[in-house]
# Entry
Amino acid sequence: MLGGSWQRGALSAALVLAAAGVASLPAPSTAAVRSPHTAAPHTVAALATAPDSASIVIPHNARTQGYQTRRVSLAQGGTLSAVNFDTIEHTVTADATGSNGLPLFDTDVPPNSTVNVPVGKLASGTYHFHCFFHPQVMTGTLVISGGSGGVKPVPPKFEQPLVLPPVLTKANLRIPIKVANVRVLPHGATTRMWTFAGSYPGPTIVRPAGKDTKITFVNQLPSSAGSLTMHLHGDHHSSANDGQPTTHLIPHGHSRTYDFPLTDGGKPERAASLWYHDHRMMRTGRDVWMGLEGMFLIHDAHEQSLPLPKGRFDIPLMISSRTFTADNQLTDPFPAHPTMQLTGPAAPPDDSTIGKQFLANGRFAPFLRVSTHRYRLRLVNGSNFTPYDFVLSDGRPFVQVGTGNGLLPKPVVRQDILLGPAQRADVVIDFHRELNKRILLESQPRNDTTSSRAIGTPSVAIMQFRVAYNSTKDASRIPATLQAAPKLVAPTKITKTWTFDVAGDKTTGSNWTVNGKPFDPNRVDLKVPLGSTQTWKLHNASPITHFIHIHEEQWHTVSRDGKAPPAWERGLEDTWKLDPGETVTVAARFTDHTGVFMIHCHMLDHEDHGLMAQFQVVRPSRSSASRPVPATFLPALFGTTSRGAPAGILATMSALLGGPTVHRVAPLPKSRRWMCGPRTKHAARRPVARPI
Ligand code: C2O
Ligand code: CU
# Structure
């Protein structure tokens, strides 16, 4: 499971193959055990026949047919090629990785072409491979035989210490947003990133609940970055301070002060593990990828009174994925100017930007020296698109004490924790009696769904805890009860159902829809009276998982798929997993602020491609209703059918960004896009040499 392999996904992949009606390979003995680090012994047959050159054949419709050659034998040091008879690009990518976390071999195979797959001198053994774009169906096995020595898969070395971003605690903060060089990878050049105050992740802001906090963000990025907007995710504040995609922007060279009272209904908010990030229309993916994300912790008296681990035993931990060029720079998987991809492999629902390497607090494969003590970890998934199913390498459970929106009523013991983009978990792990042990924080392929179309999670070792110090006393413990969710009587009547789907086809291009409509920043889909309590239904009708986020309020999860929510969803939430077909019912009371707020998918490619909608909190009496959002030219552009919509979206978005005219069929970004499926691992790659 070390080093970014997929072996735990072998079973689900086989099921998918069977489900897709593709004849599964007779299981070769060498494929029974998929360990990335011990090359399996080669077969006698392979020894007898291993040729000095071999080809991997990609047939027409490989996306559904898989590789034509599922098993390829090659003598050590031999020449491997790939022949693509298909009309779209595929790859030949090793499951197993080297110590740098990158696949042992990884070659793009353009349509209708033959290319060399440089495998170098691999140690003899069995190597599973997949297509980066279509990992569910396109899998195969390369058997290397003969010779001696050679390159073997290895786990990452955990060579650099975990870095904790600087902590800011003042009521008035000024944070420059600027280019800085960050030591992300352990060797070679530093990485040029867009940062908050020179740090990736941005400084951790720690504030007491109920104490007004003003943060002035100064946009010092190169003008080509355009305007920015900053969203404090999970917090309750006014619409003007919400960092929305198209309003109240921070232009190049300008600053904007955001005011967060950290109160709700006149009372202090509850302690919470929030985070902040850019939210610019159609550019959130790029801006976050470049580094614009950080953590924001709110504490309160109740939480402080509990004996949970504190101080240096309370660690904010942001997990993200990124892909780097050979000289350690971030690849640019995003279009040169913002567009919606309406056709091709990057169009919805196949739009995704996934990093090939996994970072903890912005560092690749870091270690943290810890004591024999309990630790509290504030896990934040700060990835653009990648969900993780977190586990600890020695099989020990996490004890989850909170969500991103505060403490759970009771601690929940969890063997694994699935977190999609923007989701958080507040967990305690216990290193007592573990002196000198090394324990890894990993992600495993998720196994909690029967839907073959649900998004998968990578198998990767992310960071290492080295239990290096004996701590004689540990006053912390985990109380049996933590904090009940605030009282709320959820109306049984559903005020609003939000259905997430995809529309269009090959000729029109595809686009995301909410209740059948593409995103329109000038349209409000629901007016919510201030002071009301509402129950909403979130339903995923699309063929891929989404992680749906609602701004402004912290929500009670009333039910998940008609049943009581799991124990870890009984606190407050702002972002929910919705696998294909899933329905989640949520309830909240709308307090304090009128104005427009967002509901959207937090997989940033989906968000940037318009899987968003808006609601508006209004004064309850008609006479004092707040000014409605202007509904100007959009109805004409968007029409009433989704088919007519995409051109309108493009024109509108381009106008909103003040950008260049956008052609209807945009060029594909130089990126890697990933199909939904139970196994994942992907990267935005093929860097474009373009100055930031
Ligand atoms: Cu974390 Cu609307 O976003
Ligand atoms: Cu989504």
About this structure: The chain has eight helices and 43 strands.
